[in-house]
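Go through this one:
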Amino acid sequence: MEDLGRLLSNYSYTDVAATKKDVVDCLKQYKALAYRVEEYAFNDGTVKQLLNLKGTIPVRYKGNTYHIPVAIWLLDTHPRYAPLCYVQPTSDMHIKVSMYVDHNGKIYLPYLHDWNPAHSDLLGLIQVMIVTFGDYPPVYSKPKNAAKTEVMPLQQQQQTPYPTQSFMPQPPTSTQSPYCPYPQQQQQQQFPPYPAAAGGGYGGYGQSSGAGASYPPYMPQGMPTAGGYNTGYNPSAQGTGTITEEHIKASLVSAVEDKLKRRIQEKVNQCQAEIQTLKRTQQELNEGQSKINDIVGRLERDEQELAKSISVLKDKEQELERALEGLEKVDGIDVDEAVTTTAPLYKQLLNAYAEEAAIEDAVYFMGEALRSGVIDLEVFLKHVRQLSRKQFMLRALMQKCRQKAGFPA
């Protein structure tokens, strides 16, 4: 199983040790399962390489053991989140829709819904599947192939991970009618067939009464089986066991009732599964509506704030226009009065900046004077040294003022 650990590491599984232990324990218990890595397409269209367990699990149904084909996909966050489980019918089988399996074969179980990584594992999941499928079979054989399905004993199926004929074998008996009981859409009631009367009559009714009818032989307790008829009825008036029209009528009525009950139950199960799907869809739509309402609320608040900001901007624009009109009417502007500060610290910073800029200009023009020969080098160096020393002190003062005012350095 070292290859399994490397495989999980290569495909970025978050908890390789726990996933490997879970898979190994499951494969030791259920030999018909095998692991592999395949692509899984999610509902949003994304495709991911995931580890899956494919094979069959044994299910007891009405005293017989059937091998149900399943596929268990492990997410890369396993065992933190529950796996995705599907029933995978063969070509001679149909999915039976129920509250636990939808028409796509996806399995819905309370065990998956309440998945807890501290207590849930694959062994417990499969055991829950076996118990649930024992009460509600997820697949059934196609009626047209029911009489041709080959019987495979349980011992032989345990040696082969994938049965060659069907995952739903019939109970092996040598004298049994070819219409052996197998899981259909709904288990049908048994009613007594009529054996062949002398001269033909209605012999074997129930075994060949038309397409889709598959009623197993019925043998009531205490009825004679040799030298007489085994009909399930006891016509005391005649005592000969002869088939009468009343018997045929009762048998036909029973067959029609069974067929109607079966189809009604199929419809009920299908409607229940559709209702569950619609409820899940409704829940998702309600959640989506809540999210949309939150987004609309945020957009409305942002719109209100934007409207306020636009109103403030228009007021400032009008104030600026009034100020410009007032400046146009003034003849002269005092430079010292043009800019005013709101605090003494800001005024000190402004004066220091203006003086430092003036020194910068003075140094520039002294350099031009030296280049033109207006002053000599000695005078230039003397004044530049004095101005530079003063400029340094002004810059230090501006830095300290900015720190006091909380401005960025």
In short: The chain has nine helices and six strands. Residues 1-140 form a domain with the Ubiquitin Conjugating Enzyme fold (CATH 3.10.110.10). Residues 245-329 form the longest helix (85 residues). Residues 145-241 have pLDDT under 50 and may be disordered.
